[in-house]
Design a protein that fits this description.
The chain has about 60 residues and is mostly helical. It has helices at about 1-10, 10-25, 30-45, 50-59.
Length: about 60
């Protein structure tokens, strides 16, 4: 339960990206897994969650 509570505190978009990446990464070749990571990171960087978080940090 402690792990679930920690995950629940994370941004939903990051949790979603992780949930989608883990099965793909474990079933893929290492080179494919290394390509997935920057792609997922780019998706998070342009997300509304990231924009809201950065706005709150600047304030």
């Amino acid at each position: 339960m402690a792990v679930a509570a920690k995950i629940a505190e994370l941004p939903p978009s990051a949790v979603r990206q992780t949930k989608e990446s883990v099965p793909r990464g474990t079933d893929a070749l290492p080179t494919t897994g290394r390509l997935l990571e920057p792609c997922r990171l780019r998706m998070l960087v342009v997300s509304q969650d990231q924009k809201n978080d950065m706005g709150a940090f600047i304030e």
